[in-house]
Write a structure and sequence with these properties.
Helices cover about 55% and strands about 0% of the residues. It has one domain (about 25-125). Helix 1 (about 25-45) crosses helix 2 (about 50-65) and helix 2 (about 50-65) packs parallel to helix 4 (about 95-105). It is an all-alpha fold. It holds the Pfam family DM4_12. InterPro entries: DM4_12.
């Protein structure tokens, strides 16, 4: 499956390269939210429930992906891992949805049971 999504890849860099200031978790979540929205739109146009599949990927990434395993796993881990700091109440509702999916995975609860309406795994598609 090929979705034409162009986006600057977010990463776990916590400092602004120009100011050397720490980037707040809100900005990291915002960057990922923009990527997830684009992926959701592409999946929705292909007839797949994009939101559910992104949440499933967040959940699975928290359970399965480890630091430094291999290049593709590291890329997926960076893209589908959220900051562990608590989401503030004033942040967009999407941040809360994505954070809940990520924390479900961190708690080792069943991603398949929670997001079973997504019939495939983005993580498995990329990692093979």
């Amino acid at each position: 499956m090929n979705w034409a999504v162009a986006f600057d890849l977010p990463n776990h860099t916590l400092r602004n390269p120009h100011t050397k200031r720490i980037i707040p978790p809100l900005i990291l979540r915002r960057q990922r939210r923009e990527l997830y929205r684009r992926l959701e739109t592409a999946m929705d146009s292909a007839g797949v429930d994009g939101r559910t599949c992104i949440k499933k990927a967040l959940c699975e990434a928290a359970q399965r992906l480890r630091v430094g395993a291999n290049l593709w796993e590291e890329i997926m881990r960076v893209l589908f891992t959220l900051p562990l700091q608590e989401v503030d109440v004033y942040e967009p509702i999407e941040h809360h949805f994505y954070d809940a999916a990520h924390r479900l995975g961190l708690s080792n609860r069943s991603c398949l049971k929670q997001y079973g309406t997504c019939k495939f795994s983005l993580i498995d598609m990329v990692l093979g």
